[in-house]
Structures are given as structure tokens and as C-alpha cells.
Amino acid sequence: MQQRFISLWERCVPDPMTRSGEDVYRELEGHYYHPDRHYHDLRHIQACLKHFDVISDQLTQPDAVEMALWFHDVIYDPGADDNEQRSAELFLQCAQGDVDNSFLKVVHDLVMMTIHPSEPQSVDEQFTVDIDLASFGLPWQEFIRLGELVRSEFPHVSDQDFESIQLQFFEILAGQPYFFFTEFFRSRYEAAAQSNLRRRIAQLRRGNA
Fold it and tell me: Is the pTM of this model over 0.90?
């Protein structure tokens, strides 16, 4: 993982004026290895990169997408509404002055797409969003296991409040015409994701009845 990131950084930041790839990776590692993280850690990034490796040849700017995947959850304060913004800003801080502004903007905007503010338009945006949410298309037991890891990141939130928040988010996802935006993910994981959503929403509605 470390050498992979350093290689990516050196490709994108060939003449670093401020932060080396090793230095930036150590900062990422410090965030992702925080003891309060159970889902949003380096295992999630590794899972994202496995999907990325399969579809990278379909991307317009694969290095930008990979960089966004590395940074998209680096700042994670459970319950905060600015995690993605702060993650994108950390990338800018690490690379500012060393990288072309157009690349900085692309990576920043891709990180911000993981908030799911609107329907992604470009191929790179669509794949970034699909990769981030690919776990919804896993078999039911694995989907539930990962959901329990997310739940453990919110020890300060009651079960009722957490399930209400989760239900609201899942219903938004279920209200889309499709869960995944790319044909690649749709053909492989759409049926499982829709089934998992319906089943989990039914459980949450019973609990909140």
C-alpha cells in the first residue's frame, strides 16, 4: 500500500516543493489507522483500489480518480457534515504549489462527489461514486458485517438515532432509478445492492415503527 501511494504521488507530483510521497503517506496512515475507525480505514481504501484496478482503463484521468480514492475518507469525524470538504482540502494542502491547478481541481471535485450531492456526470465521477459504494453489492452477510463496523464508529449515538439516520440515507439511495451509475458495476452488483437495500430498509422500518 505504501509503495503504491508513493508511486502515485511521484507521478502526480514529480517535483515536490513541500511534501514527499513518504511524508504524505505517513499522514494518511495516521488518519486511517485511528483506533476509532472500524470501517473507514485503510481496508476500505484497499477495497476501493481493487475495484479501481479492474476498471482503470475505462477512466479519463485514472491517476486523479486513484488520488481521490486515497483521500476521500482521510478526514472522518462521525456525524460531521464536512468530512469530505476537509479531506479535499487536506489534499490541496499537501499538493498546493506542486501540481497543475487543473489536476488539483479534478481531485478536489472527485472527493466532493463522494458526498453524493447530485448525480455524477462524467465517467470518472460515476466510477468514483460506484467504487465508494461498491460494498452495497456484496453478499448479505458481508453487507451486514460492514454495516456493523460503521455502527461501531458512532458509540455516542443511540441505536434509535443511528437507525433513523441510516434509514433516511438508504431511502434516498433506493429512490434512484439505479443504484450504480456505470454499466460495469450495474451489470455485476446492481441486483445484490437493490436486494440488500430493500431488506435493510424493511428491517429499519420495523425497528422505527
Answer: yes
